[in-house]
Amino acid sequence: MYLQYKFYASHNHLLFQFQVPPFVVLATSENADQSQQIWMPDTFFQNEKEARRHLIDKPNVLIRIHKNGQILYSVRLSLVLSCPMSLEFYPLDRQNCLIDLASYAYTTQDIKYEWKDTKPIQQKDGLRQSLPSFELQDVVTDYCTSLTNTGEYSCLRTRMVLRREFSYYLLQLYIPSFMLVIVSWVSFWLDKDSVPARVTLGVTTLLTMTTQSSGINAKLPPVSYTKAIDVWIGVCLAFIFGALLEFALVNYAARKDMTQVSQRIRQMKQLPTDGYRPLSASQGRSSFCCRIFVRRYKERSKRIDVVSRLVFPIGYACFNVLYWAVYLM
Question: Is 97 part of any domain?
């Protein structure tokens, strides 16, 4: 990240009575030692990983001494800061990244950092939408003064609230996986004898969903907890795999139906010629709707397909309502 760091300090021995100009600008040198013409605090960033100053074509440093003894020190820095992220709600997550600025050697008895009362942080126009994967929602100032064995050290904290852009994942993951689950239900409307078509459809959607989940997880560090995207992919895989298992159950039921039909034909051939038929065992009472359903779909394999046409979409719709209600709140 790019940061322009400023601080103000007051020195009574630097008072002057010049009317014009209202302040004095000190020249800087490419040699850092020669630029230290006045005392500077030993400020450092606690969560810094890498940092550099801008030196083209001259060091980007500004030092002003005002006639009331106040000093303005401004410098351009490029920093790489550590920001531990919590990915439970990924990719619907919000992250809090910190910038901690403190003195390394001087305790609060020597130096104390304080935020300005008005506009302590100035943001460049368009900064909130400049990040490719996040949107900067808010910037909050705070204090992080720490107490160690060597003393108490003053510290300033900047908290940046970042919201992950969801449109990419909506177009690249959620909508395609949603369509794959729906495509897997097409097998419920195919005839039970269309074995190659139904098997190919189930296996293809399952492999496509597996490949898509592997591509998404390859971009993330391995974590020990379950993410929101893992829940979505896992349930989609379960529904696609369930559609494939449903065909196996349909195929088993169809073979059972064929066996029962063959047994009935043999029993019909063994009936006596005088028209006498043995009484069958009485069946339990069933509801009117169930009797109509059984009469309309006499084959058990067909009944399984018809029930699956309702159970799978209703179950997936309930999951979507629960999923978006939990992770969008």
Answer: yes
CB 81 within 8 A of CB 49: yes
Token pair, residue 135, equals: 């949107």
Q: Are 75 and 62 in contact (CB under 8 A)?
A: yes
Which residue type sits at 216?
I
Is 99 part of any domain?
yes
| Total domains present in the chain | 3
> Sorting pLDDT into bands at 50, 70 and 90, what band is 191?
confident
Length of the chain: 329
Q: Are 240 and 285 in contact (CB under 8 A)?
A: no
95 and 69 in a common domain: no
Average pLDDT over residues 198-208: 90
Helix (H) or strand (E) holding 112: none
Convert 133-157 to b/e letters by CB count within 10 Å (16 or more is b): ebebeeeeeeebeeeeeeeebbbbb
Q: Which of 82, 97, 115 is the last residue of a domain?
A: 82
Residues 173 and 300 in one domain: yes
Q: Is residue 250 located within the same domain as residue 109? A: no
DSSP per position, 149-217:
TTEEE-EEEEEEEEEE--HHHIIIIIHHHHHHHHHHGGGGGS-TT-HHHHHHHHHHHHHHHHHHHHHHH
Task: Count other C-beta atoms under 10 Å from residue 58's C-beta.
Answer: 11
What CATH number does residue 78 fall under? 2.70.170.10
Segment 170-190, tens digit of pLDDT:
998 999 999 999 999 998 888
Q: Which residues, listed in sequence order, are joined to residue 6 by a DSSP beta bridge?
A: 74
Taking residues 272-289, report their average pLDDT.
51
What confidence score (pLDDT) does residue 316 get?
96
257 versus 139: the higher-pLDDT residue is 139
Between β-strands 70-81 and 48-53, what pairing exists: parallel, antiparallel or unpaired?
Answer: antiparallel
69, containing H or E segment: none
CATH number at residue 250: 1.20.58.390
Looking at the fold, whether 127 and 236 belong to one and the same domain comes out as: no
Distance CA 137, CA 77 (A): 23
